[in-house]
Please model this.
Amino acid sequence: MGKQKLNVLVIEDDEYSRDALAHLLAAEGYGAESADDGESGYARAKELHPDIIVLDLSLPGIDGRRVIEMIRRDPALNSTPILVVTGHSDTEAQQAVELGADAYLTKPVEFDDLIGAISDLGARPAVSEVTR
Amino acid sequence: MQITIVFVVLLIAVALFVTEVLPIDLVAMLMLLGLALTGVLTPAEALSGFSDPAVITIAGFFVISAALFNTGVVEAIGRRLYLVSGSSKTQFLIVLMLTAAAIASFMSNVVTTAVLMPAVIGIARRIKHPASQFLMPLSFGAVLGGKCTLVGSATNLAVSGLLPKYNLPPFTLFEFAPLGIPLAVAGIIYMVVLGVRLLPEHDVSEFTEEYQLKEYVTEVVIRADSPLIEKTLGETHFRGVYDLQVLGIVREGERMLPHRDAKLQAGDVLLVKGKLEQILSIKDAQGLDIKSDKTPQETDVSPEETVIVEAILSPNSAFAGRTLKRIRFATRYGADVLAIYRHRQALHEKLSDIRLNFGDVLVIQGSPRRINSLREDPNFLTLDDVEHTPLRKKRAAWAVAIFLLAAIVAGLNLKPIALVALAAAAGMILARCISIRDAYAKIAWSAIVLIAASIPMGLAMEKTGAARILAHYVTQFFSFGGPMFILGGFFVFTVLLTQPMANAACALLITPIAINVANQLQVNPRAFAVTISIAASCTFPTPLEPVTAIVYGPGKYHFADYVRVGGLLTLVIMIVTLVVVPIFWPLR
Model:
């Protein structure tokens, strides 16, 4: 276990999911921050430069797809891994991946899948300047 | 000579009441002894307070309140509060104060405030406003509600107890309502419009850390008879209603992240985190249970007989690094682990899968015998027992019925209120809404002794003419102002004296003088008695009475906050009182 603590930003409007995610990540040794809508989520991302972003697709205001676009367009964030969590269909999740998300999970999310996905994304060699 | 004794005893008593160098009930008793041993009062007169209807009524209502509390009725109202609180600050403030006032009009102000406080802090967090904006209004709402009925506050009952000594009929149950309701409405309007703006905006989120309230994790099973089945977490307001954070849902052995649209099914297990009090209240919730590996031989122990303790895993415990499942805790100890707390570390496993660490705190439930053997076990350091009286929810309907019947009988004046209170208390015990042992334990004997011992002082002031003389001075010095001016003067004087003094004692000392003043002015003494009663329970400007003190720490208030917000409220109360009293209790 590399003891370098990775920081994860959770952007999720559902307080049940958001707080449970933050709790689970903290329990697994990650630093966890959270935001409850797209706009503040993007602002938090710019401010914190998290190592990984966990993003719900259906958000009030600016929705998850738009947040992915904004993050990918931002030079400071465009290489930050994004894990999408969605309650909707796989096709929507696929769309998100096309927009630039790195992985997705559909709700209900199992603890083990989530931890697995996060640790995979965290272990990936940092890609500098992804060309897209 | 006797009159000198009365004045000396009175002065010493007031000094002792105000400085509180001695407990106030003891001061009242010494005051009584001073009057009885010097022969001012006959022994029968001195002890008459203990059989006074007001005192019996107070004792009865302690039992009635406790029964309503024990059967979960009050708690159920607290949970409803969450559902009707809305999301706007003003709406919540109004609902909160109305609820507190309604409950406190029949129950103790302090109990009302204490019961609703956790819910209020939880809701404040949800609607993202500092709890300091709501806690003082909560306690003020309870005090205002107490002014609406005879049994709502001890001062009303105490003053009522004095009236027959002046050949005046005692107050009826709802006699205060025509004044109390306008006061409550005016008070709430003041708090919403102005008061809340004057309150500090302290974030009390650190409250939990400061008060060392540990957050435990536990597992909650959705039983087959649960009303939550087929509803989503969001629909059930699970988090707000139970004040527990859902960490995960365990279904068919898999742990899943919760989300608001997750439908609950029978047999689901929720991993939750929360304060111990909240976790234990799950035991009383319908269709929910704390999951534990019940040991067969102990299931015949009734929940009333089990003991709950907190135990820390000791430094040299053989169990460190092992799970509850591995050590077969339930069979080994014949007790259940209800919840686990680990300092500064999040837990997300099922309880049986958590690898125990030194310092983990376990909440353990078992029969007294099993728990006692655990206390000897070197693997654990047992801490204090956790007080948890299981709610008698099945008796709630009885409790409500008895309470309503009592309110109707007393409200219609069919029987004297003291007898009604006693009968209702006995009824609560007969209907097993409260055990007789618990009933005795819930009577605040210091309040009973304080009032019972203070009532005869009025008698002594009357008998010796002390009250008449004091009244004479008041009427002479303030004769220029007329009766309304003097009534207002009494209000101010009573409010000032009641801050350092116990409310009921203050009312009992001033009322005899006020009634004599009214008689000398040839105006209605009842109007004066009502005004003193209201003024003596104006505890708003200081945190010195239990009902306002109880929110002082949690709200992180300063003394000056009470003076500012409560002082203005007292002014509002005074104006409304002086306007309304002459309407319903005409001076002439």
Strands of chain B lie at 215-222, 245-251, 254-256, 269-275, 288-290, 307-313, 336-341, 361-366, 380-385. The interface with chain A takes residues 233-234, 239, 245-249, 254-262, 273, 345-348 of chain B (CB under 8 Å).
